[in-house]
Amino acid sequence: MREELLYHIWKFQKFERDGLKTHDGEAVKIFDPGKLNGLSGPDFFNARIQIGEQLWAGNVEIHIRSSQWYEHSHEVDSNYDNVILHVVWVHDAEIYRENGTVIPCLVLKDLVDPEVLQTYRELLEVRHQKINCENEFGYFSDFSLDHWLERLYFQRLERKSEQIEKIFISTGNDWEASLFILLFRSFGLKVNSESFGKIAESIDFNIVRKLKGNLFALEALFLGQAGLINSVENYGRELEMEYSYLQHKYSLSRETIPTPQFFRLRPDNFPTIRLAQLAALFSNRSALFDEVIKASDEKDIKELFQIRISEYWCGHYNFGKTHKIRTKSLTDSFLDLILINCLVPVKYSYHKKMGSEDQFCSNLMMEIKAERNSVVDLFNGLRPKTATNAMESQALLQLKKEYCEKNRCLECELGASLLKRKPKYH
Hints:
Blueprint: H1 3-11, E1 28-32, E2 35-36, E3 44-51, E4 54-65, H2 68-71, E5 83-90, E6 105-107, H3 114-124, H4 142-170, H5 175-187, H6 189-201, H7 205-210, H8 215-226, H9 234-250, H10 271-284, H11 288-294, H12 298-304, H13 311-314, E7 316-318, E8 321-322, H14 332-354, H15 360-367, H16 374-382, H17 390-404, H18 413-418
Parallel strand pairs: 4-5, 5-6
Antiparallel strand pairs: 1-3, 2-3, 3-4, 7-8
């Protein structure tokens, strides 16, 4: 038995309630089990319970064994003074208040349907190949799945919003500078996200504002801070000279910046190309954030990212190695990733901070195709077309990382529903 299951049993009242009595034989009627407390203190707040002839309002503490009250030193913690009922699986000790009176104890061991316990064991104690509910995932109702995926997406969006808020504060509440950092991280993709983020953080965005319209200088700045300039030929030597000038002028340091990696990346994702594209973007748009916020649909946003990189990078992926000329504009699939991972969260965070609503985020995410990755493939394999759009694929990433991998099945609407499928009690 685990406490998390007892929380679930108490929260959803999954036990026989007819003729309910405390361990001492007093009648119990539960009007409200209270609200689960995720912080320190009693497990459930603001319960309303009648014990004998007295109606109580207060808190409920839950343990596997009643003696855990003393093991956890609750008897010396004033936060537990207002506990009106001690709910346990096994009663092995009397628990007393500071004034010497006994705290009423409700024992659940003989009140819970064995099917609930069996379902719990099958869900969380049996070894599974992929996820705990892999055998049941295909049978959840469409309504239940859609409702939970929507909630999961906004959980993920909230988590990203918290990260954006930290960056916003670090830039002195400058949204343009914040977007600059966030775009660098996104352009770096998973392999170079950290390195690209450090590059952006090392550059005062006012420098970028001053260099607007100067593509060459921005290339030198970004590639120089990345430590990627190679003077193997003239263009590299010219960039190196420009970077040396900028580094001295603006007192730039790159000591804490990890060198971007090329390993296992497709040429179009080489850090040299992505930094050249960022240079092209910011040489044309130093007030990009304002334009993103004003954009009303996907087409408007993607038009902001129609860029033309410098002639050198149209024929190179790295210094000194030529290839057939290609424009290397940002592809639709890449821009979808930027929208999903950067621009939509930024717009959401901005409107949340402003106290306004923007349906753009939800509407756009449902229009973008679902991402292709191992997590989405896993769920689509268990249930065809689980993810048909970006909102659903993002929700599945949240589900896998925050619930499946952490065995938080009883906090998952789908997992918890399995323990409620055949309600015996009412």
